[in-house]
Amino acid sequence: MYLTFDISRFIILGIMAKKKMKINKKELSAPERHFGVILEDIDSKLDLVVEGVGTLDGKIDRHYGEFQEFRKDVDYKFELVFDELHLIRNELKEKVGRDEFALLEKRVIALEKSRK
């Protein structure tokens, strides 16, 4: 069994319920009262959702601040590591490589033999 309703009346009832306007309940039919109850239930559930979103937004903001501090700390530490790495590379460039060392060692041995 399908009930037919005047949808504009339901819309007006919904607006009145949302604005907390006085509705004469004696003038409403059973389906209209049922619709009003459903609207109130949906409204209360939406209020809970809005409250939850606000709470989550606060948590996200707090964690974002903590993340920014952590990021600054990590960036500083990486900067120190890169500076140390740069110093180590420069020191290694100034040192003699294995091939060069072997060549110099042969030359020293040859000079020592020629002096004897």
Folded structure, characterized:
The N and C termini lie far apart (123 Å). α1 packs across α2 (30-94). This protein is mostly helical. The chain is rod-shaped. It has helices at 7-18, 30-94, 98-115. It has one domain.
The overall average pLDDT, rounded, is 81
Unreliable stretches (pLDDT < 50, length at least 5) are none
Provide the gyration radius in Å: 41 Å
Strand fraction equals under 5%
Task: Give the CA-based shape.
Answer: rod-shaped
The major sheet is characterized as: none
Helix fraction, binned, reads over 70%
Number of domains as seen in the coordinates:
1
**How many strand units?**
0
- Helix and strand element order: HHH
Terminal Cα span: 123 Å
- Please give the count of helices: 3
Structural class: mainly alpha
Brief sketch in words of this structure:
The chain is mainly α and 116 residues long. Helices cover 82% and strands 0% of the residues. It is built from three helices and no strands.
List keywords for this structure.
0% strand; mainly alpha; 116 residues; 3 helices; 82% helix
SSE layout and pairings?
Layout: H1 7-18, H2 30-94, H3 98-115
